[in-house]
Amino acid sequence: MLSVLQVGEIRVADDSDFRKLKNLDEDTDNWKLEYQKNNTSVWTKTNEVSSFKIVKVRTTFDDIAGETLYDVLHDPEYRKAWDHSMLEGYEICAINPNNDIGYYALKSPPPLRNRDFVTQRSWLDMGKEKWIINHSVNHESVPPRKGYIRGISYLTGYLIRQQGQNKCQFTYVSQSDPRGKLPVWVVNKATKILAPKIISRIQKACKGYPSWKSKNNPHLKPWMFPEQMTLPRLDMSQIKPLAAGVSSESLDESGINEDEVDAEEYVND
């Protein structure tokens, strides 16, 4: 098991949890290079937890400060403006100032079913290095929804390394299971086409953030200033076993042909 925090487990993340993400970032054993262009590389690796491979994406932004990237990944209001894959997203409750539980619904290219996730998110800012990690949990306020397949994140994380005043290295690692029986071409397209385009989308979002933030609660950054956090506190009685949050939707999408799906339109909308 790669992640120290187990799926379904609720607790404050500690150094070992963040170190696991760093170890995956630095690990070079048995990764297959799937894509490499300009500053962006995408690798995959098989694992014992899921039939879906771990995906690792690394890029260097030569014109973005690490602090800006960190804010963009955190800011829930700005995410509505730039993350066109998100159908719905919100925080449910806070565990402590650096750990919360939230909901994220993801638009899939039709006719694939949309996915959604309920995760505990944890973050750590060490100045030149910043981490954000998440793993799936089950909160009773967001039971499985009709029309969505509830995915599982075993460990998903972002690692930002500041490399200069306006330069940073960005690594995204995802060990997740979108659940269901998906055609092989979906996974291939996700690693070779969608991942690089999402990097491009994040870069564009970072460019627009300072201007947007200056007009939208410029001083509100609860991920940096815990006193600004207004989320209700975690009520452990609302946490249920992960197995209780399984979708009732049909999980078999293996018969969908690649020419039925326009992934290019999906990432360019």
Commentary on this structure:
Strand 2 and strand 3 form a beta hairpin. The chain has five helices and ten strands; from the N terminus they run H-E-E-E-H-H-E-E-E-E-E-E-E-H-H. It has 269 residues and is α+β, with helices and mostly antiparallel strands. Strands 1, 2, 3, 4, 5, 6, 7, 8, 9 and 10 form a ten-stranded mixed sheet that branches. Helix 2 (66-74) packs across helix 4 (184-215). It starts with 14 loop residues before the first helix and ends with a helix.
Give the H and E element order: HEEEHHEEEEEEEHH
Count of β-strands: 10
Biggest pleated sheet: 10 strands, mixed
What is the distance, rounded to the nearest whole angstrom, between the alpha carbons of the first and last residues? Answer: 36 Å
User: Overall pLDDT, averaged?
Assistant: 89
Overall 3D form: globular
Number of helices: 5
Helix content: 10-25%
Low-confidence stretches: none
- Computed CA radius of gyration, to the nearest angstrom: 18 Å
- Proportion of beta-strand residues: 25-35%
User: What class would the helix/strand composition place it in?
Assistant: alpha+beta
